[in-house]
Design goal:
Shape: extended
Structural class: mainly alpha
Oligomer: single chain
Radius of gyration: 29 Å
Distance between the termini: 94 Å
Strand content: under 5%
Order of helices and strands: HHEEHHHHHH
Number of strands: 2
Number of helices: 8
Length: 278
Amino acid sequence: EGARWWGAERLLPLYAVFLVFWAVGLCKAWQRHETTLALQWGVAHRKQAEVVRPGFRGWPRASPVTGETELYYPQHRRLAKYLVTGLVIAAQVVMMVCMIAMLYAAFFCIQSTDFSVAESLLLNLGCSTVWGISLELLNWVVWSRVAASLNRFENHRTAAAHETHLIAKIFVFFFIDCFLWFFLLAFFQIPFGSQIDGLLHKAGVVLDRPFERSDWVPRLGMTIGAVLSLTQWSMLLFADAYVPYWWSARAKRREAERASSKPPPPGADHAAQELGRA
């Protein structure tokens, strides 16, 4: 069975190369289809008008093209803000490495303790589930807001540039948050686990059990399954069902509190007394 697995494993690089060519070919085919439709509809030479974003801030100046007054923001200031964005991304990588170290410590603790097969399976699944829920919360509660704040901070002039940079930031934040652990586990821990054990032994860190590939491959599958199935669907149901209900109830409660805190208009008491007498 191990030889059969090793033979199938050798085909994985070919499968990865096939996926790369398939993705590039699909994008190129879609671009050709899009261009064909644009020619058929007579809109091939039309360009989307650049709309200045309402939140854009700058200094008035005469446009070098039209001579009209326009808002201008220096590029060197935006480059400095790009540097701040890069520092925030670096801080995210450091934070994720610390979280991954904690997950490694939990897995090593499970590996070095004499649990039964069922207990070890449940503990590994529990760590994977907690990891998946943490990723979802970080993505939608923390990193999406950080990306939006950094995008506003960079002060892009047009709405198209604002949306493009926001999509890029969300992609980078989510990619690091979701896939850094999988990348380290699949391309670092599993292929080179024995060498890592040797380096740790030379550094004076001796593990109770040596590296075993059969222990770490299921953990990779569990964490991927927990993120893509259990936590993904549970968080989607939570976001689609409970959050709108909670937000609507909160808005109604605030509206009722505002209405009750408003003083009555002048003459309202007198009008109420007249109605009572009538």
